[in-house]
Amino acid sequence: MKVTSSWLRRAGMLIVPAALVVLTAAAGSAIAAPVGVPPSGTGGSVTAWGSNVSGQATVPASLTGKTVTAIAAGFGHSLALTSDGAVTAWGSNDVGQTDVPSSLAGQTVTAIAAGSFHSLALTSDGTVTAWGANDKDVDQATVPSSLIGKTVTAIAAGGTHSLALTSDGTVTAWGANNRGQSTVPTSLTGQTVTAIAAGAIHSLALTSDGTVTAWGFNGNDRATVPTSLAGKTVTAIAAGSAHSLALTSDGTVTAWGFNDDGQTDVPTSLTGQTVTAIAAGSVDSLAIVGYIAPKITTQPASHTTAAGHQVTYTAAATGYPTPTVAWQVSTNGGKTYHQITGATKTTLTVTANADTDGNRYRAVFTNLKETATTNAATLALPATTGGTTSAGGSTSAPAAPAGGGGTSLPNTGASVGTPLIAALVLIGAGGALTIATTRRRTRTARHR
Hints:
2 domains, mainly beta, six-stranded mixed beta sheet, three-stranded antiparallel beta sheet
């Protein structure tokens, strides 16, 4: 995976996380699950930075050597879930938000969430535990009795409210409701909700038909789902303090709501990319762009040319990140290949000669996803047939001497040099001259 976009200009909204906590995936794994829900087999280490007033950006030494599978960040505290199903909390604890309940000891936690001043944990038996701030008449850290006997599959924590998704596809909300953020819309009745998200004072739900429902405070239209999503299939949702995000099946991101810090200005750098996961901070947004394996778009063509001529092979491939290229050559008919030093462009120029005759060339494209190899292209010198070659040059036998009587030299496939032919002709002519001279001299002697 690669986090390729984070759009943010400045902090300063209603709920501002004091630290940024990032889970680094172990080699070979990928993170593409909703926040707080670790995908199977994923794990790594935690890095935190930013404001550290309450120690929220200081990762505890107790996590050293452990595999962290999920993370969450509140206003001034942080949470981590390890592969053994235990929760570690650190940072501000003025209302008990980092006092992990003893009731979780021995249980296997499967997901975590952090509100401004409260925390949530979901255990393997489908029950929710909440702790931290429990404001009067709000009770965001008091799990409602309506969840007793139900199996919770996902949790979300807003500023001072909480959400739970149960196995029957219904949503339960509790805590602050001054802006309607805990009043689940009746339009969700009878629908199957598959994902939930909580902003500071608004909430989101994704249903099985790929549509988004939003409710709560609607300042800057954060709870008004854009018409641009009509007809599209949404696959993931996220909520910031006052803005919302949706990821659609075509890998594009839609953002709406408060935008004073540019948090809903989806970067143009994402155009044409396939986004695989999204997340929303208080006043910033994140997108993970999935790696796209190289795909060969241009195959190199074979060439036949005369010795001394140059030929150029061309290959191309798409992919993300942009693939690198390395050309290889085989001198034994394709049995083995070795890399050509310095041949790292999409074109390769080779001079035809006896050494390169019959060589095969191919390009290997590689990125962080995988490797793709082109077909092999051959370089060949033209074969000669009769007196001509297929490369445009020609070799012809000498014509018979003027006056007739000469015998043409057979063409054995090798070129007969002109000087040799001339020498043979001259020798023949010289012999004739010698004979003639001798005869004249004989006649002269007789006359003497």
